[in-house]
Amino acid sequence: MEHASLASRIVAYLIDAVVIVVIILLLYMVLFSIMSTDIAVQLIREQTEIGLNIPSFVLSSITTVGYFTIFESSKVWRATPGKRFVGIEVVYEYGEITFFKSFLRNLTRILWSLPCIGLIIVLINIVLIADSKMRIGDILAGTNVVKKESASSRNYLIRFSSNYKLLWDALAEG
Fold first, then answer.
1. Distance CA 147, CA 106 (A)
2. Nearest-angstrom CA–CA distance, 101 and 32
3. Which of 40, 88, 127, 152 is the most exposed place for a label (fewest CB within 10 A)?
4. What is the CA radius of gyration of the chain?
5. What is this structure's pTM?
6. pLDDT tens-digit profile of 65-85?
7. Interior CA angle at 82 toward 108 and 142, to 5°?
């Protein structure tokens, strides 16, 4: 399988970012229509010393991690709309990507939105992708982003890697 290029990953992320912003705006509209005006204004103004709005941070983090986790762990999609548009997908080195593996992979996205730390994490990810073709989340979850292949070759690779893992486990035990 051929690794996805940094450019294709960036384009996919930009597409997904637009979709996520629309989802978050819709969620805000729903929440603010339910809340009283005073509570809504107070939530918007609530900030920590470092300028982080906690309610917005929590809502955007849950939405972002949920969006990527649900799409990437889907047996049908295996990719977000942005990744599908550019023809790449997330794969797990030993078979199908599970919900937990996708969640673990995307949990690091929360760090991206923290002031100062986010910039450092993004720069580290760019260096890792340029070198190993994997970002921090991929390393933690054992996943990779690759160019999409035909279903038959993908199924063969999944069976091959599953058998390899079983053989490796048997050798490690004995």
1. 19
2. 33
3. 152
4. 19
5. 0.72
6. 999 999 999 988 889 999 999
7. 40
